[in-house]
Design goal:
This protein is mainly α. The chain has a single domain (3-79), classed as Winged helix-like DNA-binding domain superfamily/Winged helix DNA-binding domain (Arc Repressor Mutant, subunit A). Helices cover 46% and strands 10% of the residues. The chain is built from 4 helices and 3 strands. The chain has helices at 3-9, 32-40, 45-51, 57-72, and strands at residues 12-14, 23-25, 80-81. Strands 2-1-3 form a 3-stranded mixed sheet. Helix 2 crosses helix 4 (57-72). The longest helix has 16 residues, at 57-72. The protein is globular, with a radius of gyration of 12 Å. The two termini are 22 Å apart. The relative contact order is 0.25.
Length: 84
């Protein structure tokens, strides 16, 4: 995993008290799962950003980096997990 992906993953956190511990973006109540689902359904980055004005393009890239890290079995140490 390169440094850019690690920096992006710092935007992702998990807290057992928010969405049952699912990964979320920058502490907001927007899950990585939601963004990945929207992308899989064909939503454009621009449409997602319009629907979620607090999101930044880097947040969407962070969701993709998270999915890549999970599939590639890379370390997710850069993801902030509450209680760790």
């Amino acid at each position: 995993m390169d440094q850019t992906e690690q920096e992006l993953l710092r935007r992702i956190s998990a807290n057992p008290e928010i969405f049952g511990g699912k990964p979320i973006i920058r502490g907001m109540r927007i899950s990585v799962e939601t963004i990945l689902s929207l992308l899989a359904q064909g939503e454009s980055v621009e449409a997602i950003l319009a629907d979620y004005p607090d999101l930044e393009a880097e947040d969407i890239r962070a969701c993709l980096a998270y999915a890549h890290a999970v599939i590639a079995h890379d370390s997710l140490d850069a993801v902030q997990v509450a209680g760790r």
